[in-house]
Amino acid sequence: MFFLKCSAAVLSLLPSILLAQQTGSPQTAAPPAAASTPAAGALTLHIVVTTRKGVLVGGLQPQDFVVEVDKKTLPIVSFRAVPSPATPAPPIETVLLVDAVNTRFIHVASERDQIKSFLRENQGKLAQPTSLVVLTDTGTSVTPQATLDGNQLAGFLDQAESSLRVIGRADGFYGWVEQFQISIRALHDVLRYEATRPGRKQLIWVSPGWPLLSGPEVDLTDKQRQGLFDDAASLSRLMRAAQVTLTSLDPLGTDDALGYRTTFYEEFTKGIASPRDMQFGNLGLQVLATQSGGRVLNSDNDVAKLIGIATADDTTYYTLVVQPPPSEHPNQYRAVHVTVNRQGLTARTLTGYYDHP
Q1: Are strands 72-74 and 244-249 parallel, antiparallel or unpaired?
Q2: pLDDT band at 244, cuts 50/70/90?
Q3: Does residue 130 belong to any structural domain of this protein?
Q4: What span, in angstroms and rounded, lies between the C-alpha atoms of 89 and 86?
């Protein structure tokens, strides 16, 4: 297990930008727009149902689902199954993000080749509109628009600059902090951009994840914990507004199979209701992916295959809307639990969110 050994004095030197909601936007991003919801305070859930072997399950009805918010069962006010014989499936955008900040250069080159292999399958004809984001130390590059032309995206990936990283794990704690900063800022930016565009999206973040910066000897001040809590609430709101499900895809494969990143994040997946319980690990990539209802894919060297597994979730799913009672205070954490009334089936969806009165 990985632990950081640092004092409160060291942590007090963290730049304030780490603990505040980011205000930048990707190159080509438009100003954010307010997101609409079916009704004031309504909660929309995109749910993927699988068997124990991971096979996607279609054909379910509203009565097959039980939705609980804060341990209270709520009636389903709206239901839609995809695919549906009555109506065509709405387009779902896939956003592929190549992370050159948290991945060593030798692995970035390999993962780019495998992503291009995925994009060029079926003569470059993609099943869903897809866009590309390339994250480096110096900025974020975004394709102008989503497209079904995988060959065009592969060409963009060839042209995107993904140089050797300026910072790295060898730089120690301060390097890890900077990686964390860049990553959280980029996630805020991408979500703001996607919130200006209609429809549901799946953000596949190809990365081993940014440093969790957590352990028994890491002490945070109350102000730092509050800042991290505000970031968690902000990301939660943005993810819902943008209708984004986050998937973590580790390109290191078997090289990372025995590393701490593949399991350590599990200690932080429970939703945090109070700033006093916040740690950096609660904002880890794999943690946020799990909480959004997305997948955590690792320990496999075939990046193209893993992208295919992630995008398959967009072919069979259910959209449910429930109406929770009003929240009692700003940033109130609401735990969400969805079960299926059929033996052997598992529902994967949002596990919680932060609400406002």
Answers
A1: unpaired
A2: very high
A3: yes
A4: 10
